[in-house]
Structure formats: C-alpha cells, structure tokens
What we know:
heterodimer; A: mainly alpha; two-stranded antiparallel ribbon; 21 helices; B: mainly alpha; 2 domains; 67% helix
Amino acid sequence: MGFFDVLQSAFGLFATWQNVLVLGLGVxxxxxxxxxxxxxxxxxxxxxxxxxxxxxPVTGILLLLGVYKGGIYGGSITAILINAPGTPAASCTVLxxxxxxxxxxxxxxxxxxxxxxCVADFISNISLILFAGVLASFALAFGSPEVFTxxxxxxxxxxxxxxxxxxxxxxxxxLGLLLATVGLDLVYGTNRFVFGDVNLMxxxxxxxxxxxxxxxxxxxxxxxxxxxxxxxxxxxGVGATFADFQRCLKTIxxxxxxxxxxxxxxxxxxxxxxxxxxxxAKRTSKTPEKFGTGEIxxxxxxxxxxxxxxxxxxxxxxxxxxxxxxxxxxxLGAFMIHGLRPGPLLFQDSLPxxxxxxxxxxxxxIYLLIVGKISIRLISRVADIPHRLLxxxxxxxxxxxxxAVNNTIFDVIVMFVMGGVGFAMLSLNMPAAxxxxxxxxxxxxxxxxxQSLLLSRGDWLIFFSSTIxxxxxxxxVLVVGFTVWSNVRRT
Amino acid sequence: xxxxxxxxxxxxxxxILAIGLVFVFILIPIGVDEPRRVxxxxxxxxxxxxxxxxxxxxxxxxxxxxxVFRPTANELDSEAHPTATRRLLGISSIxxxxxxxxxxxxxxxxxxxxxFAAIWLAGERRIHVNAAISVILPVLLYxxxxxxxxxxxxxxxxxxxxxxx
Lengths: 491, 165
C-alpha cells in the first residue's frame, strides 16, 4: 500500500462524527477534572476507560487522548488561580502563575499558559508523527546510569527556584529527598521509616504532599494578613497580548522540544520536563531575578515543558509498546482491550489506524485552544468570590481532593501535616519549591542510582560509561559552577 | 527582643541541622530495616538516606553560621492583620479539629462545621450566607464525587440519611 493509499484509508477511519465529537468531549472532561485539586489526569483517564470498551478502537483511544491533553492544561488553571496545581505536571506553573494572579494578572497568565500548551502540544504531535522511529531508538539508549545523570542535571534547577535563599533552598530539597524515601525499598523490599504503619509502606502520595505544601499554607497565611480591599478581580485584568506571546515564543519552543525529548524517554513524565524547561528559561533570561515573582515567561516555560511531553510519550508507546507514564500505560490497556498490540508490528499491520490516530491527535491541539478559551471565561466568574469565602471553600476542596486520590483518610492527614510543615517553612522564609522538586525526583534518582550499581556490580564507573552520561555530567558541572560563581560575585 | 541574633535564618538553619542529626542518629538506625547481607555498601537501603541526612547537617550548620556572622535585618511584616496571632491560632484550631472530627463525624458534617467556623473567623458576619455555603458545598461535593467520579466519601453520622440517595 502506498503512502497516499494509507492516508486515504486513515481519513476514512477518522472522518466520522463520533471521532470529532468524542475528541472534543475528552478535552472538556480533561480540562475540568484537571482543574479540580486532587483530581489527577491519570484518574480522569482511568475513569473514562470503561466508557471506551464499546467504542471503535480509534474513537475510544481518541477519547482517552482528549482527556489526557485537556487534563494537562486543566491542572494549570488552579495552579495559577489558587496555588494548588491540579496535576503534578502543573506544579512548576505555580512558581510564576500564582504571583501573577495575586498581582491581578491571572488572565494574562492563563492565556499564556494556554498558548504555550497549544504550541507545545502541536510541536509534540508533529514530532510524534515525524520522529517516532528515530526518537524511539534514542530512548532505547537510556539505561539506569543515563537516567541517573539526567535526574542529577534536573536537580540543578533547585538553585534556580531558590532565589536568594540558595542554602535554605538546598536544605528544603534535602528534606524533600528524605521524605521521598519513606516506604518499601525497591531493591531489597525492606521497610524504610514505616514504623509499622501499613499506610506508609507504599510511600507518601504525591498529591496530598503537594496540596499540603502549597495550598494549605496559603489558606493559613491568609488569616494572618490584613484583608486587602481588592481593587480588582484577578481575572478582570487584560489577557495576554501578542507582544507577550512573541516575547515568550523562544521559551515556548525550547520548552516544547525539552518536553518532546524527555517525553520520548519512558518513565520521565511531565513534571521534570516542566522544571527543566523553567530553569533553562531562567538561565537564559536577561532578568532571571524576576522568575518566581510573577514572570510571564516562567509560566510559558513550565506549560510548554509539560505539554511538550503529551505527544512524545506516545512515541515509545506506539513504536515499541513501552508506556512512558501512568497515562500511556492506561492507554496501552485500551489498545489491548481492542485486541491491538502497540509496537513495531502495529506499524506493519495497522498503519491506517495509526495514521487515523495521528490525524485525531493533530486536531486535539485546536480543541485545546477552543476549550481553554471558553473555560477561562467560565472560571473568571469564580474569581469574583471574596477571599473570606474563597479560602475556606478551597480548604474543603483540598480535603475532599486529598481523600479522592486513594480513598484513604490517611492521605488527608498527610495533607494536614504537610500544611503545618509548609506554613512553618513559609514563616521561616524557606522556599517550598525545592522540597517538592526533590520529592518528585528523589525516587527516580535513588532507584536509577542503585539499579546502575546493581548492573555494574558496585563499579561507580558505570556513571561515566556512555556519551549521554558525560553530556549530562558536563551540563551539571557547568550549571553548578555558574551558580556558585554568580553567587560569589553577587556578595 | 533581647537575643537579636535569633533571626529566622538561625531558626531555619538550626531546624535543618536538628532534622539531619535526628535522621543520622535515631530515625535511620531505628526506622530502616537493613537486610542481613548487602552485596555492596551503596546498595544498602540506608546508604542513600544517610548521604542525604549528612548533607542536611552540613547545610543546616552553614545556614546558622552564615546567619550569625552576616545577619540580615528581620523585616517587619507590613501586611500583618492587627489580630494576626489570634486569627492564626483560630485557624490552626479549626484545622486540627477538622482533622480529628473527619473520621467520627464523616466528611460532610465535619466539612460543614469547619467551613462555618473558618468563614466566621475570616470576617463574614452574615449568618445566612455562611450557613448556606457551609451546608450546600459539602453535600454537593459528596454527590459530585459519588455520582461523577464514583468515589464514595465516608459519611460518618450522616450515613443513615444520605446513603441510598
């Protein structure tokens, strides 16, 4: 079958009203679920899965893809408005999105987040179509030592998000790394810091820690502040201008490619990509000190980084049958329910089906733009609520959200405790972002560190055994050196 | 305050240092089950936490030393509420009570009570507005999670009333 025959039958497969409708519906569901703190994108995709059983494979998978893409954007809405990211991938958006909202520029932040998301999504989808084969073979070269050095490099962004509190930022990161070790040790299967509590065995769940650390301290701190008469609705401000978009375009494109590359490596996911894109944007910025205080480029960097992943995670899934994260694992499940097995064989046997999916995926970027624009308007009414009502309401949302992640009260307690920790850190002027980054990246760091040593039988040279490792070590040394040098020069 | 060298930085550093020490000497020896035979030291489950805890000790000490020798002015919080301490104590008590009552009373009742108290403390004095929000929101959330997300939120004392609706 020639290329155009394939394309023709792919269009035949795709061009039904169900497909077009379902993809849009998926984006709507994803956006709204992602916007509720505590409801995660994987949860949304998992809840949608049962509805796809009776649908045509293409329709079913497009529905899930729509939820996936919408969810990633939806997570950034609450991140910007109430400092509580709806999804882990949106936690980086908080850093500049929330300060912008507090300045009354939430609309601008949401707009840029949306544009960055759509551009990154589009670039990611194109890359999926163009580079599926090439990137998949590059990803195959990533073993444990390579991932370890990659994570080491990603951790250098802690310096970036600590601002002028570098030492306290490092301390905060150390606490995050330690908290991440709670639970079963993956190499020997022994308990660490469990103290006989069954709930602690699987480690602390990310969402309650995140809500506790970011949303609760904000609520508590509100009670300590003088009620400022709000001159403006945070969303009454103007949206992003074309000049804003132009200024951020370089950052957005860089973030998209970071997302594409990291997304193509199984097991990395959106959060590290968002943080890496953010630190790159900060490092190359002419005004790096503005990052973290409400810099529109910071939002663009975070959002392009995490959305750039969305298409690329499909690369190893389709080309090799390896799911890159929880969501693609669920989508893999959807393929298998319909008797399809992603991998090289699928490219041989069902090429029209893959192309039909590609067409649908391209359309999802456009849906994202439309649904996003509309949802920003709907949400602007919510922002009219006065703070004395909004903060207590958010408190209850946090409690329900923390419970819903795993259906356990334990998670709610974790959230409350982390809220206390977060408020203490806020009072001591200790940045919380490094804690969170370390908490997410910690397990990846440790697992790959120990797996590498297991592979090499204890030989540390394995961390220098490939070009990829050397490249990441070089970058890490460069960044650390630069940070130290600029710190010394400042004082 | 007399002891003017006790700044936020000194407290933060001392806390980091203390947490690091507690991990090195108490929590890691007690809290980590060490397998009987470990092939290489680096593979032991205590290896990595110990490195991190040592780093914490060093960082904590550095923060304290720097803060003592190069103190930064303790900036006054200009945004502070006139009765900030009382309000902060109030919200802390509400949060603790919320966490404690969650299991016996169930999410809906505990949330309604916490919501009412928190809104009152925030300064909303219109009882009807407060009561309406406090009752309607938790009930709506309950049904949202049950019907849309299919997650049954524990009802506690309301079980006989709302179950089966």
